[in-house]
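Risk register update: the risk of archive-format incompatibility is retired. Evidence:
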Amino acid sequence: MPNISRLLATAALCVSALTAPALAETKLTVSSWVPPTHPMNTKMLTGLIEMMSEATNGEVTGELKFGLAPPPAQMDLVMDGGADMTIIVHAYQPGRFTVSKLAEIPGLGEGAEDVSVAYWRVHEKFLERADEHRGVKLVTLFVHGPGQIHSNKEIASLADLRNLKTRLGGGVVADVGKELGMIGIQVPAPKVYETLASGAADAVAMNVGERLGFRLNEVAKNLYEMPGGFYRTSFAVLMNQDVFDSLPRRTRRALESKVFGEPAARMIGKAWDAYDAEAYEATKAADDATIVTASSNDRVAFAMVGAKVRDKVIAELEAAGIDGAAAYEMMVEEADAQ
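Archived output:
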């Protein structure tokens, strides 16, 4: 004869399962400071939201919000609870970040995916101890593809960059620009189009994809490219720490094992690479666009500039308590291995 107590207990559990409320959905407010059609929104942040939702069976989702704060204020926005998540550019806050410049050194790897994955691995081994993202949850780190020079004046050689009024975003690209004798103008990326259109700048240093994302094909007809790029830009995705801590433990584990860190870096880097490739083809197809690739002599000359900038960054890491030489060596090895 069946155990009546066991049957009753089983029935009670079944009723409880049927009547228990569904797990609460956490919809994150994701702040964005680039145009809505930019791939940072349509591919990268949207892709990150999809990854989080899939990893948590729909428990964590997100919604993009625009215009909540200017680019340099995004970290404080998230820290103060004005948004749950955002992307920041480290170079937009000089003095707040130092070790991120390692990923911006010219000549690292090929595409954004390779360098972004390498960047996260080096962060875990070396850079994390600097604790430069304290106060927020670091979701991932990444870089865009090789940064090139886009101008409304013809550029035929490295020498033509001297005294060129150029929008430089800060960080390593500012160091590179100084070594090349460029006149640096610093404005956030969303202001680049009007800065070039008004004549306040003659050129801009950006990855090739921005010829589409920020409509550079309209105001910078000339592309001067250095194989491997003049620099890269370091980014981070941040989440409000209290919001992350409020999630159930198993949800946090799912995010950290399946989304945060290397998986997100790889996804975002791959999106940057596709974006650059699309824009490069569009530029080649444009009747009024000119693409000039640096000569072998200019490549040799720039390699000397790159080495000088590299040594400066390594010294800055050393001053921050990081083994800069070892971290750089690992960046090169990991990027080349991808």
